[in-house]
Amino acid sequence: WLQAVFAANRLAGQLDAEAKGTTGYAAVRPKTLLNCEIPLPPIAEQRRVVERIEEMAAQIHEAKALRAHAAEEADVIWQRGANRIFRVALESSSTHPLADLVSVRGGGTPAKTYPSYWNGVIPWITPKDMKARELVDSIDHISEPATQETAAKLIAPGAVLVVVRGMILAHTFPSGVLRVSAAINQDMKALIPGPETLPEFLCAMLWARNPEILELVERSTHDTRKLETASLLRISVPLVSLAQQHRIVARLNALREEVDALIYRQSEVAIDLDALLPAILGRAFSGTL
């Protein structure tokens, strides 16, 4: 019962007036807290209300777990649909190894001992930036001299960036289409498509075939993960026309929009669920639970 009193913030009105602080945050003395008055119905009523709160809290927890699972399943829906589309393309078209369709660029990390290399305006993309399928900026930035004097050379828009080293490869092989000029670090590779391959088509194919590509990932020193570039470049790519690539990308984008709409609806449900427990606590102390 006492925990429920605190969770419902029932003492806020009494404590706010007494809160004191000199270092930027408020503090309440133990004596002040102990002088607060709390609602105290008979023990039987306390037990009834607490049991009801715990029952409803358990239902909320279960609903939130189901919502999170539904969001995960939504991404699986896209991957399965995309994988099916590419599997049909592979079965109905001739194929080429990825090595025939792209050139590969690496990256590097400018020396931290040269401050002039850092805090410039050029995005320097690392695995921690690979959270989107279109890359327009990064957390860290470097200067133009860094792209001229170090291994972090400038890469033009239109490349497909992939992660080839890092623990993220234990579960995901991320890729994204670069939309601005940028540099990358040594844990990344830039795949530069030839004129007969759309970067959006290549990026979608890599996402769709994540399970297959993850089987190529190896363990390296200190149990981190790495994907040898040679292994990646051996995967088969369907040789389809640019027009067909555009059609496949359009189908996948439509599927992505449907999945994103589902995930958005699930996020709205999560917000409602987060607001539900405080409402239940409020009803508990108003006598209407």
* Order of the strands making up the biggest sheet: 2-9-6-7-4
Give the overall form.
elongated
- Total of DSSP H or I helical runs spanning 4+ residues: 9
N-to-C CA distance: 14 Å
Cα gyration radius (Å): 27 Å
The tally of beta strands, per DSSP, is 12
Structural class: alpha+beta
SSE pattern, N- to C-terminal: HHHHEEEEEHEEEEHHEEHEH
- Give the uncertain stretches in residue-range form: none
Instruction: Give the overall average pLDDT.
Output: 85
Strand fraction equals 5-15%
Fraction in helix:
40-55%
Instruction: Give the biggest sheet.
Output: 5 strands, mixed
Write up what this structure looks like.
With 289 residues, this protein is α+β, with helices and mostly antiparallel strands. Helices cover 47% and strands 15% of the residues. It contains 9 helices and 12 strands. The strands form 4 sheets. Strands 2-9-6-7-4 form a 5-stranded mixed β-sheet, covered by helices on one side. Strands 5-3-8 form a 3-stranded mixed β-sheet. Helix 4 packs across helix 6 (199-208) and helix 4 (43-92) runs antiparallel to helix 9 (242-286). The longest helix has 50 residues, at 43-92. It is elongated and about 80 Å long. The two termini are 14 Å apart. The mean pLDDT is 85.
Labels describing this entry:
single chain, 289 residues, alpha+beta, five-stranded mixed β-sheet, elongated
Secondary-structure map:
Blueprint: H1 2-7, H2 12-16, H3 30-34, H4 43-92, E1 95-97, E2 102-105, E3 118-125, E4 134-135, E5 140-142, H5 144-149, E6 160-163, E7 175-178, E8 183-184, E9 188-193, H6 199-208, H7 210-214, E10 218-219, E11 225-226, H8 229-233, E12 236-238, H9 242-286
Parallel strand pairs: 3-8, 4-7
Antiparallel strand pairs: 1-12, 2-9, 3-5, 6-7, 6-9, 10-11
Helix pairs in contact: 4-6, 4-9
